[in-house]
Design brief:
The structure is a homodimer of 245-residue chains. With 245 residues, chain A is α+β, with helices and mostly antiparallel strands. Chain A has two domains: 144 residues, Jelly Rolls (Sandwich), CATH 2.60.120.10; 86 residues, Orthogonal Bundle (Arc Repressor Mutant, subunit A). Chain A is built from eight helices and eleven strands. In chain A, the strands form three sheets. In chain A, strands 1-8-3-6 form a four-stranded antiparallel sheet. The longest helix of chain A is centred in the middle third of the chain and has 27 residues. Chains A and B meet through strand 4, strand 5 and helix 4 of A and strand 4, strand 5 and helix 4 of B. Chain A binds a DNA duplex (30 and 30 nucleotides) through helix 7. Chains A, B: This is Helix-turn-helix domain-containing protein. Chains A, B: InterPro entries: cNMP-bd_dom, cNMP-bd_dom_sf, Env_Response_Regulators, HTH_CRP, RmlC-like_jellyroll, Tscrpt_reg_HTH_Crp-type_CS, WH-like_DNA-bd_sf, WH_DNA-bd_sf. Chains A, B: Pfam families: cNMP_binding (PF00027), HTH_Crp_2 (PF13545). Chains A, B: It comes from Paracoccus albicereus.
Chain lengths: 245, 245
DNA sequence: CGGAAAGTTGAATGAAGTCAACGAGAGTGG
DNA sequence: CCACTCTCGTTGACTTCATTCAACTTTCCG
């Protein structure tokens, strides 16, 4: 798998049109092709640690990673969820402020920091794409702030589920706004709790409550079936109260 | 005030070296000079509303503005605090996802969207600066997520005060890590509560508690005196438990 | 001076956290 | 193949911190 990917050209890359290279022309792509390398981090592995110096920037090709901060007394809050096409690292600054860990096996497309920074300077298509992606991440972070600051436990869990549905929809291109959906959760209950700013117990109780209310089914702990999205969405308490954009 | 600013050249601009134009050379600055205009929004005024289309991008020159979201049932969460040099708007997308309001009288340096977007394309110094600023904002938003998700009411208020101290320090260049500090709060208790994801009452009680503990003095509701920062910082519960960078 | 808005304080309520026990699967090794 | 263990997830009982509802005080402006 790792080896096969190592020979994969950017043209056939599954994230070619969504990652930081999305807007590259053939020339730029060839340059990136020349400096890229693939790495696979096993589930549970550390991709980066807060404060440490990173000499590679990378894109997530497959799998799921978490961005989080742990306080001195062990309290932990997730602040980012990285899925295929998401970018890791900060051009222009070597040190990261957050921990990044592999929630599943994660394959990364890596670029040496110096080389990539040079590309950003010479290739406006990469710089522009990175700005767009960062602005999108900022919007996500701010919506997340609203969730953490003002939503109830139940609303948070519903939001989490809907955001997974939405991300999956944008990846596959399918836009279901109603009907049954099956979700494979990439995160454990503990990670979901860290995502939502709740405890494991509260998170678990909310899943149970949603199941008892018939809004979800849970064939296994990691599998969620939503019989009808339309039943879940009204409770999401988005600013307009309506379905998700 | 407004008129005087309208004649101010970028060279003398108070935010010249911190705003989106910080890295511009003289040529680029001259282009910006040509398309900029100043606007002053009175305290309480709306600068932009979620969902509406913006045809100007701007920098905050003076004053303080808030970025927030209001849910259908009135719950409100602040997700950004804009101070001098901060940028408003999103190149490449006309609609904003959040409300922006003037917490004090705010003076903006505005650029027509289309013209500014052209400059971003032609002037890498502006694009690069904007990327850096956006990445910084993302870090702020993520630290804010930690505050909202995991800190107690007392810790949140302390963090809020320390972040104001820090921002003031970076503006004036003075780096006090101990000793007395005087703060003029740009926000009402209600806005602080929206910032911290708390109610007005809880926020007020925490100020009272900090006063009773001798950590702060409150000559007026809007003025906070911190006799010694070193007493406040240990309670901030940063990841390392130590003083603020 | 008077009225509204902003801020503080108190008492009661409630949602989520804590502590603790229990149950279900997954993997290991006899 | 089954027993064993270990991790993960669920459930229950109780506690706690922040919210809610309400009254009161102070400050700000017209």
């Amino acid at each position: 798998m790792n080896l096969r990917l190592a020979r994969t050209s950017c043209i056939e890359c599954p994230i070619r049109h969504r990652a930081v290279c999305a807007e590259c022309d053939d020339t730029e792509l060839a340059v990136l092709e020349g400096i890229k390398s693939y790495v696979t981090v096993p589930k549970g592995g550390r991709i980066a640690e807060a404060g440490e110096s990173l000499d590679h920037l990378s894109s997530v090709v497959s799998g799921c990673a978490t961005v989080s901060k742990t306080l001195a007394d062990g309290r932990r809050q997730m602040v980012g969820l990285l899925l295929p096409s998401d970018f890791i690292g900060r051009p222009g600054r070597a040190t990261l402020s957050f921990d990044i860990e592999a929630a599943t096996d994660v394959t990364l497309c890596r670029f040496q920091r110096r080389a990539f920074e040079a590309i950003i300077r010479s290739s406006p298509n990469v710089a522009r794409r990175l700005l767009t992606m960062t602005l999108d991440e900022l919007d996500v972070a701010r919506d997340w702030q609203v969730l953490l600051g003002r939503l109830t436990a139940r609303e948070r869990v519903i939001h989490f589920l809907l955001s997974l549905v939405r991300r999956e929809a944008t990846e596959t291109g399918a836009a279901h706004r109603s009907g049954p959906v099956r979700l494979e959760l990439p995160l454990s209950r503990e990670m979901i709790a860290d995502y939502l700013g709740l405890t494991i117990e509260t998170t678990s109780r909310q899943f149970t409550a949603l199941r008892k209310d018939g809004l979800i089914e849970t064939p296994t702990a990691r599998t969620i079936v939503v019989p009808d999205l339309l039943n879940l969405m009204p409770e999401a308490m988005d600013e307009d109260g309506g379905p998700i954009a």
